[in-house]
Design a protein that fits this description.
The protein starts with a helix and ends with a helix. The chain is built from five helices and no strands. The model has no long low-confidence stretch (mean pLDDT 91). With 153 residues, the protein is an all-alpha fold.
Length: 153
């Protein structure tokens, strides 16, 4: 089951890269905020249909949960807006690796301190090594982009 979840997460990450590349093109033509609005509108419509047809009923509703938990819904807005801007300027690969770097750093802090009610998973040398390796990857991908632009120009 863990392997299936990892594969699904990789697929989810791949779709985010596709979305970033497409949204950058759309945003350059219609504007960043219109592009973000379309993304969230279509997402809300599709999610609404999925809830209607597939979500089992629950005893707890959105009105019943602690209000701070509703703040997570707002975290997607900065991501979409930033990616539409960033991909146009630094490319899909650099923007995506930078996002993953930010996700990795924050997720390890969340794990380490057990923020938001999550289980505590402490920092280990291998986890810190993963952050360093991804930081190095980000540096090299960005550096190769700059070299490729100089070669073409």
């Amino acid at each position: 089951m863990t392997l299936i979840m990892i594969i699904l997460a990789v697929i989810g990450g791949a779709t985010l890269s596709i979305q970033a590349a497409i949204n950058a093109q759309l945003g350059s033509k219609v504007g960043v905020f219109r592009c973000a609005f379309l993304t969230f509108s279509v997402g809300a419509l599709i999610t609404g249909l999925l809830i209607f047809y597939f979500e089992p009923s629950r005893a707890v509703t959105l009105i019943d949960v602690p209000k701070w938990q509703l703040l997570g819904a707002m975290c997607g807005v900065p991501y979409i807006v930033i990616m539409v801007f960033a991909v146009q300027r630094i490319g899909t690969a650099v923007a995506t690796v930078a996002v993953i770097f930010g996700q990795l750093c924050m997720s390890m802090l969340i794990d380490n301190f057990g923020w938001f009610g999550n289980d505590i998973i402490i920092f280990t040398p291998t986890r810190i090594g993963a952050i360093i390796c991804l930081g190095i990857a980000l540096y090299f991908i960005h550096a190769s982009n700059k070299a490729a632009v100089k070669t073409e120009g």
